[in-house]
Amino acid sequence: MARASSRGGESKQGLVVTLVFFILATIGAGVAAYYGFADKDKIKADRKKFEDEKEAAVAEARWLRFQVGLYRAYLGLPAPTEEPKELKQGEEKPKEGELRIGRELPGLKKEFDDPNGKFGKNYDDSKSAKTLITRLAGLSKWDVNKNGPEKNVEEILKDRDTRIAQLVAAERAALDEKALAQKEKTDAVAARDKALMDFKTNTDELKAKFDEDRKRFESQIASLTDQLKASTDKSGPLVKALQDKLEEAQNYSKGLEKKIKELDTKIAALQLKVDTSTVTAVEKESKVMEPRGEIVRVHTSLKRATINIGRNKGLKPGITFTVHGRQSDGSPKRFKKADVSVLNTDANTAEVEISNVVLWNPDRKLYEEIDVLSPENKDPVVKGDVLINPLWNPNAKTHIALAGYFEFIGITSAQLNGFIRRLEDQNIIVDAYVDLSDGKIKGPGLTRSTEYILRGGELDGREPGAPREKEVLKEINDNIKKLFEEAKQNGVEVMRPERFLRETGFALPRRSAVVD
What we know:
The protein has 516 residues and is α+β, with helices and mostly antiparallel strands. Among the domains are: 185-282; 291-388, Thrombin, subunit H, CATH 2.40.10; 398-504, BRCT domain (Rossmann fold). The chain is built from nine helices and 14 strands. A six-stranded antiparallel β-barrel has the order 3-4-7-6-5-9. A hairpin with a 5-residue loop joins strand 3 (291-298) and strand 4. The protein is elongated and about 205 Å long. The model is unreliable at 274-286 and 508-516 (pLDDT under 50).
């Protein structure tokens, strides 16, 4: 009984030991499996992280290769796209990385230019790179066919240097021409002054001689008269002698008048030479282009602006100006970019309407009107642009004359008077004009103080509202010529109506050619 019990205890003990080892093994396998699967997930996560980083690095490398390739192209050293068949002396064979830059550039440039694409937009330098590439494109457009800019920076600088050299040469030529013109003017003025002095000397001498001869003839006439009274029998010969003396005095007087007239003609010719010299023309051009004010602000609509002159300088609503940009030296550019009309004024500023935006067409030699918001308006009105109107002067009144038929004014007295009132509102005084309704010259009169005469056309009777009587038409046209003759004698500058409209900002009829 005791042995049986002992065997049963050994059997149970072995089972227990077996169970314990089984449980321990199971737990160990579970723990090992747990850690094994945990390491696998970590490996997967790390792998994805490395792949993402690799993809980001590859994308960033493409972005950097694109910039390197584009900048090299603009700098004149584009990356090659294939190996050269023959290497020049000292030239190295391009490496694969450099070839890759050149080969990838067209595709990367296309991705970069795609407005809906995302290429390069996630990098910190995206905005600055975009700005720089845009500025480079402004200097020279990208040519897809040659996989590079139309001109690289070296070529652009070379063109600039050539242009600078041309401008320097042109400036030197202009200075030489100015010096020559100045000399011509000086010579002409000296000749005129000498002629004036000779004229005065000759005139004084002629007058003195004339007075002396007149007194002598008067004395002789008195003596002959006395002799005639004293001896009636000898009156016949005395009367004839008296008549001969009178005729001699009259002929001498006519000779003096002719000589004085010749001297007047010579002086007028010399004055005309001075007035038409190159320097005088330059001076007149400078006077015409004298700024009266400038733009200080352009409104957001681009159709109105604020200028820096107002009521304190006599500015009134309705006065017009042309708008000119500035050259590098600050002087106004020759051709206008727009017309403006004053809407309302403050003490020192005024609001103007930008009424006419134009482009100068050098081939057709006329201004072409464009819309202020048009893409063609590449030189819009901006702050700092100057205002030109040679006939409006805040410090003095400008004197002009009108001679002829002007289509934009009309013929009737009412139309002409209305135009004259508009001029008076701009500090302009009309000294003389031909009234086309009756042919008379009216106004205070043309003098040397008159600065311009507006040149219109003569009438043939077919104009709307023109007189039909031949006598009136002849008087009108004769007086037009007479005013021009007076203007020539007084050195008054002739101004065509197109130039008047252009330089004062008056609205031109559409399709009107404004030729210089």
